[in-house]
Design brief:
single chain; 3 helices; 4 strands; 38% helix
Length: 71
């Protein structure tokens, strides 16, 4: 439903980014890892897909991401 989850995670990411913290985001509308934005499929990924999305190919380490917002 529309309770502000997407808005909240996007705002948290923006605040952390402005504070100089490398931040990723995984939400229903999109995923942001480094400079890459991947369109979402209107649902939070299942656990295994989530793990691959975040840690597959060492994406987190490759982009030095220290914080991850998950909707």
């Amino acid at each position: 439903g529309t309770k502000g989850k997407t808005t909240t995670t996007c705002r948290i990411k923006a605040i952390l980014d402005r504070a100089g913290m490398k931040t990723g985001l995984i939400g229903t509308m999109h995923t942001v890892i480094g400079d890459k934005t991947i369109p979402g499929k209107l649902t939070t990924p299942e656990a295994l897909k989530l793990m691959r999305k975040v840690w597959g190919e060492k994406k987190i380490e490759k982009h030095s991401i220290k914080h991850l917002d998950l909707e």
